[in-house]
Amino acid sequence: MSVTEARRTDLSAFLRTRRERITPEMVDFAPGPRRRTPGLRREEVAQLAGVGVTWYTWLEQGRPINASTQVLDAISRTLRLDSAERLHLYRLAGHAEPVGQAPGHVTPEMQEILDRLGDMPACVANSRCDALAWNAAYATLWPELVNAPEGERNSLWHTCLNPDPTTRLLNRDQELARAVAVFRGAYSRHADDPCWQDFVRRLASESPDFARMWARQDVAEPGPREKAFKHVEMGELRFRTTSLTAVLEIRLIVYTPMDDHTRDAMRRLMENVTA
Question: What does DSSP assign to residue 179?
Answer without folding.
Answer: H
